[in-house]
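Duplicate of earlier report; FBX15 protein input re-posted below.
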Amino acid sequence: SMPSEMLLKIFSYLDAGSLLSVGCVNKRFYDLANDNGIWLKLCCKSLQPKWAIQKMKSEQTEAVSLGCAALHDEKPGYWKKEYIFKQISAFNTRVMRLVKLLDPYTGLPCKNKEAMKVYGLNWTIVLKDKNGKEHVMEKPKLSFRNTSVTILWYGTGWPCLDNLSTLKLFGVTPLLSDQSRPPTKNGPRRFSLIAEYHLANLTESSVAVGADELVQLFSLNSGLIVGIWKEKNGIAFIMASLHFNQLLERSILGSAAVQYAPPPNKPFLDDIDPEYGLHDYSLRLDLHGRSCMYLCGTFKGLFCRKDDIENGYLRLTAVCLTDNRKHLPIIGTFGICWETDVFKGKIKDCFMMDLTLLDETGKPFWCFSAPVCMELSSKASGLYDCMGHIYTAEYADSEGKVCLEFVWLEETKEYVMVSLVLYVSTKKINSWYGTNY
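Output:
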């Protein structure tokens, strides 16, 4: 029963976050909280655009902003959208400026972790069942590596797998970030869609990574793993491994319905020629099991001659079987660690692979973080200093393939990586450089 004029006066004392929350009470509050006069006042006070500084004195800001003709020319909510858009753009600029400093070994930003903390970035899983009901899974457990972050969700309230239709992975940030105070738990938030998966026939259509006595691991694309209980055929946990190269962009620059699409690469004009091939590429390879590191290696000066182009792929050899100077020992035995509220385990003979391939300018060219399983090869190593069974591991996506070989040394109970070869798709090369290999 309170008059709208009195409510508008009360609302004029609220900050932006409180106004957005008030607008969720009912339709009347929503219409009043969209008042252009209130939001124009917030724009002048917080963002201080140049035209406002020039035309308005501090003591006249409220009177002029509430009474200017522009309020009547724009539709209700116009200045609210302008305020939110400019706040988000300004904060994105500050955060992106924070990650400009690059690590010379990885070619990736040094302060990704700090930028995520400043931004208040988190990740959420949304499971939708066949009736359209959504189940939101928050509060993940994070594990930071050199070039990626592993995100683990687990709990006792997972819905039945047979009733689920889709899985969506979102990056979540406060809609209006304020560095002077932490984000409120129930405040307005932005969702950026990172990946979406259809869960129909999950166990049949997904790649089986491995299993132990309790769970089976199934790999979806974009580095996401679903752990299924063997006995109940229900979800035990969900794990995502995201590479730092596209982490922030995919987590903050997309929308709730559309994934972020990176801009096309602007090629560096040098002596790139199909007759000459690729040259001076660098590779950073990390093999880990979420909570433990097995291998961390950097390989520089990778190149590809014309003769190495075959069947639509260019071959880059980082570790050669016959060159024992580049063979690398593995720390511990391979396995992906998992946990829930009650149980913990380790899936043997598989690992998470973080790959960062840099072009000749040091720009990330091909990056991913994904689970890989290894298999016993039928052949045995004949190397004099590396006798034993050979294990192979492969990864492939639309941009290329990675092939690894390990030898198990029974005497020392350790693996040694004896071969690492990358096959880069010519389509990827052509789109990157604008050439025709």
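Residues 78-98 form the longest helix (21 residues).

Merging into the original ticket.
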